Each structure stands twice: as C-alpha cells, then as structure tokens.
Amino acid sequence: MATDVRAFCAKAGKTLFGFEAGKHKVRTEILAGLTTFLTMAYILAVNPGIFSALAGNGMPTDAVFTATALAAIVGTLVMSVYAKKPFGLAPGMGLNAFFVYTVCLGMGYSWQFALTAILIEGVIFILLTLTKVRELIVKAIPVGMKKAIGVGIGLYIAFIGLRNAGIIVSDSATSVALGNFKDSSVLLALLGIVLTGVLCILKVRGGMLISILAITIIGIPLGITTYGGIVSKAPSLSPIFCQFAWNEILSVDMLVVVFTFLFIDMFDTIGTVVGVSVKSGMVDKDGNVDGVSKILMADAVATTAGACFGTSTTTTYIESASGVAEGGRTGLTSFVIAVCFAIALIFSPIFLAIPSAATAPILVIVGVMMCSPVKEIEWDDYSEAIPAFLTMVLMPLSYSISHGIMLGMIAYVLVNACSGKFKKISVMMWILAALFVLRYIFM
C-alpha cells in the first residue's frame, strides 16, 4: 500500500511539476520556493506604494495589494503546472513605475487607459508566443551574448541589493556613493552579506532562507523590523477589477503606449529567463533555453490576468535566481512560491515585516553566483568581447535589463558588420538591431 502511494505521488509530481524523485529533492524544492518568495515578497509592499500616487484618481492602494498578490499567484501557478520551471512571477519593477509616473502622471492618461494597454500587450504576447516569434528571438541571440546577459543581470541585481540596503546611495556629484555605515540598517545588511556568504561557502542547505530569517529577527530590537500583527483580511478588488477604457483601444496614443510596454516587457523577460537558465544549467550546448516557449506563455498569461486584476505588467522575476541558487529546478519550486503569495493575502503583516536589510544581502550573493559564466565569454575575440562587455555593464548603469540587451545587440551587429564578419549575424539579429535603433530614435 505504501509503495503504491509513493508511486502515485511520484507520477503525480512528474506530471504536475516535472519533479523526478531520483533527480530532485522535495526539501530542496520547498526551500528554494521559500527563498525566492522571501526575496521577491517586497513587491507586496512596493507595488501598492508606487500606485499610491494614483489613489487620488480613484485607484485604491489596498486594492492594488490584493491585485499584486493575485497576479503573482496566477502567473506563478501557470509557470509551475504548465512550464514546470522554478520561476516566480509578479508585477515587474520599472514597468510599474512606467505605468504610474510616465503613462498616468506624465502623459496624463487614466489608469483605466493604462490597464487596457497592459491587457492588449498580454494578448499580443500570447499570440507572439503561439507563433514562436518570441522563441525565435531567444534562439537568435548568440551564445556569448546569452552568457553576458546572465552576468549583466548578476551585476544588476547585486546593485539593486546594495541600493536597497543603503550601502550604495544616490549622489548629485558622482551619481552614486557609499551610504552611511553608522546607520544600523546598513550595518545589519552588511552582517547579512557576511552571514549569507559564510552559509553558502559551508554549503548549508537553506542558507539564504536562514539568513533572511536571522536578519529579520535581529532587526526587531533594533527597530528595523516593524511588527504589525499577524492576520489581516485581504482588501476588496472590486474598485479596480476589469476596469478598461474600451473606447480608446483604437487610438494612436494606445498604440504607442502598448508598443512601449511590449518592448520593455519582452526584453526584460527574455533577459531574466536566459540569465537564470544559463546559470542553472537549463540550456543545451548552443545556449538554447529548455522549454522556453512554455515559460514565455506563462509570462504572457500572467500579464493578461494581472491587467484584469488591476495591476501593471506581470513578469518573470530575476529574484528567481535566489531559489535556483538553492537548488530549485522544477515546477514544485514555483508552486511553493504561489502558495506563499496566497498565504500572504491573509498573513500580510508578517511577510511585509521582512526588512530590505534581510533580503538585500541575498540579491548581492546571488549576483556573485550569476557572474560565473563570465569566464566562458571569448575575451580574446573582440567581436564577441565588446558587445558582451557593453551588455553586462549597461544593465546596472542604465538600471535596466532591456537597455543592456538592446544596446548590446546593436553593438554586436555593428561591430561584426563593420569588421566584415557578416556570416556571424543572423537575419533575426539584423531585424532586432534595426528595431532597437528605431526604438531609440522615435521613443
């Protein structure tokens, strides 16, 4: 009887999540899911905070909290069951700011208009994925560039972690500078980096999760971890659910906004998927991502669902790298992430109490881990090295994955074409480079 139960569970696990008992471990996948969730749980607080700028225009902040969680749950469940990959999804940082500060406050459009643009973008993404266009774009990126994308994302998320921790701050004279090391939050984050590093060196299972919990607890007496209770009822979604501006879907303005969302989201997602997949070994010898079409479909469905719930573009999260670093390889990891977001709807005060001083060190250490493919780039071949370098360095400096990819790919085409190495440039690369140039000229 017990053997039959185990056999049934093993078969169900492989069918649902791609989990294989002899190859993967349940404990590892669960720890990976918890780690990814805790490193990306900040979106539950940050996203409503960004959208609070629209509260006076009839978009309640508390409703955005619920929409954020639901978008993450739906998107990550699709990733878990359909794509069977260990990636978490949620409303994307940068894309949410573009929604609020550029489209709504800057350009003067209503939030209903912006949500309509997100919905249309999601539908277009579904069509592009079904027709394999997005997959063709991923496959067209040269292997060296794919390695560079992974390294660039590592530098990018490490920079985000250092900024979140206050270790690096803005400076009017030098753009960035060191933060105040007398600040207890900064010191706690530095302790977190050391603790996480030591646990990783000692190969302690769940080391990142242990670090997050330890720093959170240490932060309580320091006043850094703010305890606000245990249980809280999820706010109503009704004020923002399926609020679309159908009368404006054929306008030129809608076309421009949709195209902008589409461009940013596409290359943020491609960069994240390629970067994390390369690091985790989920690629073939040519650098092609295993099951990429299903991953991109999960992302497209998540964006469409998020628009219906009432939030900005939902995308695959780079913080998924933290769970992958803990050994997550299957849809069971992403299933755990989705369950955690569902629990967060009820126990939001607990999850929102985790300070950035606890999660920022994880991003820094994961950034270190993601830089290992740098040694596989052909540095002696400048036709490979120059575009790769620009891709890597421009991601953190422009604070954008998509800018790093687009400028790097333009550089790849130009450097190789001007050097007479036309055979290295595929038709798709020519098309993409031309589109990127047009994007920078007209947008």
Notable traits:
two-stranded antiparallel ribbon
Provide structural commentary:
By secondary structure, the protein is mostly helical. It contains 19 helices and 4 strands. The chain has helices at residues 2-17, 26-40, 43-51, 61-83, 95-104, 111-130, 133-140, 143-165, 184-201, 207-222, 252-280, 292-309, 320-325, 331-346, 348-351, 356-370, 382-398, 401-418, 427-442, and strands at 89-91, 168-171, 175-178, 314-316. Strands 1-4 form a two-stranded antiparallel sheet. The mean pLDDT is 86.
Query: Which sequence of strands runs across the widest sheet?
Result: 1-4
Query: Uncertain runs with pLDDT below 50, 5 residues or more?
Result: none
> How many H/I helical runs?
19
Instruction: Briefly note the structural class of the backbone.
Output: mainly alpha
How do the helices and strands follow one another from N- to C-terminus? Answer: HHHHEHHHHEEHHHHEHHHHHHH
Biggest sheet, open or closed, and with what strands and sense? 2 strands, antiparallel
Kindly state the number of beta strands. Answer: 4
